[in-house]
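Board notes (copied after class):
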Amino acid sequence: MRGGRSPWFTRSEQPRRPEVRENLQCDVLVVGAGITGSLVAERLTRQGLNVIIVDREWPGRGSTAASTSMLLWEIDRSLTQLTESYGFERAARAYHASLEAVTGLKSLVLQLGVACDMRDKNSLYLAAGDSSVALLAEHELRQRASLPGEFLDHARLLETFGITRAGAIISPGVADADPMQLARGLLRVAISRGARLFDAEATQFDPAARAVGVGLADGYEIEARSAVLATGYVMPDIVHSTVQTVSSSWAIATPPQPQNIWKDAALIWENSKDYLYARTTRSGRIIIGGEDSEIDIEPAARDRLIPEKSAILAQKLAALWPVANTGIEFSWAGAFDTTSDGLPLIGPVPGAKGVYAAYGYGGNGITFSFMAAQLIGDLIAGKSSPLLRDFALDRDGGSTS
């Protein structure tokens, strides 16, 4: 799932994670104990359900540890692109749902007192080329959708942020955090409510009339009324989707340099398909990532490229923010999935009654994971949402432009 080392690794105490020694039963089985599984488990235990969580890895040591944890509500596909694919109403619905998800996640962290270095931020969406015409059109469409934000032309961007680009959209309502602390904090909350966490690998899924039988690698079985797949970028064989593509991304973190941070430590990303993205940490590190590839996806090939990609990212940091110390203290790579329309895969797994998918693919992974927890929690409680059609696993994916 990842190579190298990110700044999020700590030696904090891991939750107790025994092996399964007998067949078990529960209301809901959550497969995966990373950030998505933790969010799902927190939501379902809040609903009073008997929850079991299984993972073959230590919680958060998969794709969560590779996340840059930029909690954006802006989606990998612009509102303009989504409107071209699905129409304005559906596109605006996805954007508003994402905005509400970030707001809800921040509120949840505050309510539960999860210590994860979460900070309210603005996002700075930069023009990637020499013109800001497309960005201005995007801003006008967002205004039509009543989304917050302000357009900055080249002069205002340079004056306000000291960044030399053709233009940008600055938007409120985003955040950053430590993803490992966030995932473990939510998991501890779920366990305190009675959720049980096991070291186990789910290998078979047998949906029946009244329950889902999940076979484990050690031969035992867990019978659940519902099962939620929160397996990150490792999809079980029962999940089929034509809109998802595997990619690799690389990132670096500098030494702490709080004296060199740009205005308000805004979250930065670009208006391009394979965009550069940057954030800071509370200690003043600069994290910058990108250089995404759909070719170098095998772990060995991806990880061999860490030194080369790290050097490129350091050069891009110097170009973006010349005052930065571009020394590299951490460098890492990770697998991640994207979808052709930039939207997540959330909802019932076709042909597998009682099995639900929670895949927050794309640059909005944690935002989409919160959304998945809410939508699936509501589904299990007997409620529905038009978003489930928008995020369905068997959707056609719209235009890829």
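Comment from the instructor: The two ends are 28 Å apart (CA to CA). The longest strand covers residues 167-176.
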